[in-house]
Design goal:
The chain is mainly α and 241 residues long. The chain is 58% helix and 3% strand. The chain has a three-stranded mixed β-sheet, covered by helices on one side.
């Protein structure tokens, strides 16, 4: 008697295999991103940051606009940066710099509430966040970029410490059109080295930081009022490192 044998075909694994490959790809990407980012964070703890993404972006912006603007950037150790300027940027940009761990949630909450109410308030970005953005990322407001900013913020707080963060910040931020860092800025605005900045001169540079391509330390009445206010805060600001 013949017995019919039913052949059981295995279920198709094509779709499952495809998603498995995708997951492996993203997992490897995640691992390599962490390795590379950690490498550069550790490297920049000891080595001066030669260039930032913003410098490159500004170069091509000026090139496309037909502007022949030279990039000026001279790295100096924090010992050669006036304590007046160190205190000025803390007073102006991040008064709780020594109290938070990179992310100032109270400032972020105030900024969010102010934005919700339609008020024009200072943003919640700390000096650490601005340093992370300037050194490792691009300008923008997407959630993806903000997530990367938070990642680098925590990382450099853990690896660099406050003094190195401030040193990199003061050597990397935009302080004029084509001008980056404290030494280039003081040479441009005051024709002197940044170690010898007076309190009012340091306050003048700090006063233009929200928009250094638009304002000048020797400019409008608005900047002069802000400069005087920052100069007073410098006297009350202490460097805790």
């Amino acid at each position: 008697m013949a017995i019919n044998k039913t052949t059981i075909k295995p279920k198709s694994t094509g779709k499952k295999g495809f998603f498995s490959h995708i997951m492996r790809f993203f997992w490897k990407l995640f691992i390599w991103f962490n390795i590379v980012s950690l490498f550069f964070v550790v490297l920049y703890k000891f080595v001066p940051v030669p260039y930032t993404p913003l410098m490159v972006i500004r170069y091509f912006e000026n090139k496309s606009a037909g502007k022949n603007i030279e990039t000026k950037h001279h790295w100096v150790p924090i010992e050669d940066i006036s304590k007046n300027l160190q205190k000025a940027v803390i007073a102006s940009e991040d008064g709780r710099f020594f109290e938070h761990y990179g992310l100032d949630f109270s400032a972020m909450q105030k900024a969010a509430v102010g934005n919700f109410k339609g008020k024009k308030l200072k943003g919640g970005s700390t000096i650490t966040q601005q340093t992370a953005k300037n050194v490792f990322l691009w300008q923008g407001r997407s959630y993806f970029r903000k997530a990367l900013e938070a990642y680098y913020t925590v990382l450099i707080e853990l690896v660099w410490g406050k003094q190195r963060i401030l040193e990199v910040y003061l050597n990397s931020i935009e302080m004029g059109d084509g001008i980056y860092g404290a030494e280039a800025a003081t040479q441009h605005w005051y024709k002197r080295d940044c170690k010898s900045l007076t309190r009012m001169q340091a306050a003048g540079i700090a006063a233009i930081l929200p928009n250094p391509r638009r304002f000048s330390p020797n400019g409008s009445a608005y900047i002069s009022r802000k400069q005087s206010k920052i100069a007073r805060y410098i006297l009350m600001t202490k460097l805790k490192y």
